[in-house]
Amino acid sequence: MRFWTIVVSVFTAISWATAQPQVMTREQAAQIALRFIQAGRYPGTLHWLTTNDLPAGQEVHMKDDALIERLFHEGKDWAVTMDDMAATWLGSGDLFPTTYVFLVTFNRWPDRRKVVRVNAYTGYTEVEPYRESGETNDELGYGHLPVKPYQELRSIALNIAEQLLGPGTFKVFDLFPYDLSNPEHYELAAKGASLFLIFKQDPNTGALLSQMIRITLNTRTGEMGMGEYENLPVTVSTIPKITREQAHQRVAQELAKFGCEIVSWLPDGYYPGKIIHDTAFGRDAVVGLLVTHGPFLDQYLMWHLIFTYKPIGSDEITGGMVMVDAHTGEVHFGYSSAIHLHMPTIHCGDLESGLKLIVINDKPIYPFSQALLVNGRVYVPVKWLSGLGIRWDGTKLVGRYKTREIKDKLLREGQLYLPLRAICEVAGIYLWWDNRKKVPILRAGWLEPRKSAARRQ
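The structure corresponding to this sequence follows.
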């Protein structure tokens, strides 16, 4: 059986068979980590594959100060085996950060220790770079090997993607397609590695799916030097209702409200590290149509756009990133690592306004689909429900504690909204309203990821 089938079936069984994403076991996470490093020929050995293999014989979360202090005073051997990490490559899934940590050792470099991290809810995986900062292939002991042509490395990267994600259409972003006949290119390539970002792609719409790898390959060995891997099922339509041109218009209209105008748009591509008018873009700088997740692991089809803009009447230009919902046209500034435009709450008359922030278990959450405040009541999109462990059957909310029929519904721009208080009631969530900050506050013990993981030990 090919690996992509294994991972999709494991993830589906543990997460999508029930409403709320579930915590996988360390053993299930180890399957994902092992297959990734094996497919990429990462030159390390993975440890801590089962709970019994752990130094303390149990999981130790880096934020569990009480446990760490107890183990220290007892003189027991221990190591941090759980951490918090993004649930997806684009950094979303704020409510589900719990991550398993696996130790990696190397026969070639006995004193070197690295880690692999696997998110316990989604299986999103990050493999730490085996080379130290600035370390060259000569220093690694690979200087005697010939430098591989770029197309050979590209083929290796595509083969890894196919092993992990299965057959299909792929979009490859080439970061440095070097030419060995160029002396400057050869000098750079000979020292290190090449970076590849590869998405599985909808062949009809061109949408980039939540199935991707981002890896470096050593230019002399073809081995994976570091890697990031995501393979989530697509549950949203990949057919946009809003065109790219319409998305551009929506962004321009929003900026105009703040006295700014668009100067230019960047074409489809990947722009990590690019500096545009004093704005530096990070690893999330992808331009195109992407399947994207919100903090509840709710799924969206988004136009990811990079643009330059300036205040009207000024020559001072800067760069920015924005997402536009390809189904509703909703505009989302401030999501990227490159720029944060602080947009005020938008008022629609005196009766309703968009709520851009809620607080869950003391953690600020900025949903992509905003809640609405209408006549003093908070309504939230049905997209939030699965992350809160609730099912909507069209007339009733079915939660872990009770079922409740709902007649009070709102429809806005094709999205259905339901009352937050009723949702919290069926889900067993305490809800109150911070009248000073105008923010709903939610608290639920079962939404604490570390507690959920601990219950599996």
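Residues 251 and 257 are 10 Å apart (CA to CA).
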